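Progress against Task 2.4 (sequence-to-structure conversion) is shown through the following example record, which the project officer requested during the mid-term review.
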Amino acid sequence: MNPKLRLGAAALLALALAVTAPAGATSASVRAADPPSPSERGAAVATAQRVIAAGRPQLLAADQDAFSLASSVPGVNGIQHLTYARTHAGLPVYGGEVVVTTDRSGRAVSAVGTGQQAVIALDTKPRIGAQEAAETARAAAPKADAAGTPALVVHAATATPRLAWEVVAGAADGSSILHVYVDAQDGQVLDQWDQVVDGTGNSYYNGNPVTIDTSPSYVMRDPTRTGIQCGGQNGAVYSKSTDSWGNGSGTNLETACVDALFAAQRQWNMLRDWLGRNGVNGSGRGYPARVGLNQANAFWNGSYASFGRNSAGTQQATSMDVVAHEFGHGVFQFSGGSGGSGNEAGGLNESTGDIFGALTEAYVNEPATLDPPDYLVGEEVNLVGRGAIRNMYNPSALGHPNCYSSSIPSTEVHAAAGPQNHWFYLLAEGTNPSGKPASSRCDGGAAITGVGVRKAGQIFMTGLNMKTAPWTHAKARVATLRAARTLFSGCVEFNVVKAAWSGVNVPAQSGEPTCP
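Structure tokens generated for the chain above:
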């Protein structure tokens, strides 16, 4: 969970096209499972293609721009989120993705968004060679042991699109996979972001014994949830001659895998049952866990999660909320478009991990003797000897900002998680929930009655699927308000979303939806 990913902020271009918006479902009818049929998916693709073709001026599309479907992810009530990659003269455009959201039938569009801020108009012939770009990238990535082959792209995540070489420089131990963008005309580093984001068995955290799903022949690989498995730092999956795992000790790595699998499998079920999502990537895939990292840390590196131990060396960092946090970074990665670069988007990414930790704890709802839902992050791991590492109902209790301000884009990413974490608590639980901690508004506004953690998760997930680069608090406000209008009839949930954002000092935005 170290501050590895540096993501950033820019204005949202979102267009409300003259098509029918999806009808809001009643609160009682909101459901998570039952994904769209093949014909409904086909209808969504056809609609998206028509909308993109009609909306090219609003999407800042040049004549040489083309769009291709990169992912299609269903959500609550079968809402469909289609992300289209953009190319310009055949070159990939970083930051130019377009996200189209339709209803279940695929015939109605509620929102179309792109983070690109200007029409691309540039010379696609580089002045700087690939080798020079690779050397520049290596110099910008001190942890890297090797750099991949540079790829020519258009970097469009800032105000002026630029021709760039994208170079991926990685560390052999998996602790850094840095994407460096080198201007192909003047050789300067334009941007960079790190793909690594900090962050029956005998369990240490979840009681004994617990049930985990493993493969025949006694391998710690989930037989039904594709991609979920656990082993050591070398990536090899643990196996043995019996199907009994771990000894319940805080220092035993097999026990750490019991806890990691237990959490990852329950998070998968929560995504399915509460949020209508099929796996971490939304398309039926999860990712491995590796334990035994010799650091007081845990991180997600884009293809697996790695878990270390606390600073005292007495416990592995595999509590439910920490495991769900790291795989929550994967949900962020595979939702909507790219996040962009800079600390504001990095803080939203860290907060996303915390929110998925809270949702998983609430879904499992373990008894008070274990780890009940509490909106604290990592308190059981005691990572550096001071208990929780973040507090969602009162981030300032741990020195993090409760409220959004102009300083957030320059705030360290874990601290910058504070405003959205606080927003989620106000949305889910309100200002004075029964049996849970009170949480004050930053703006001194009226008391808020929360919508409940499950509804809050559905609104958050639906908004996250509208993500475009660079992701900002302002854009998250607009997306979650759209989500509430799409998911629920009436204005109750919408008004709580709005009040919660105002309650953390994220004000009304131009073009945000209203609820009559």
